[in-house]
Amino acid sequence: GRDLARTRRAEIMLHHSEQRWQLIAENVPDFILLLDEGGHILFLNHVLPGWRKEDVLGQSVTRFQPVEWHERVLDMVGRVFRSGASFEYESVGAGSPGEERSYVTRLVPIRDPEGGIASALMVATDITGRKRDVARLEYQATHDSLTDLPNRQSLIEKSLDAIERAEKSGKQCA
Question: What's the pTM value of the predicted model, to 2 decimals?
Answer without folding.
Answer: 0.72
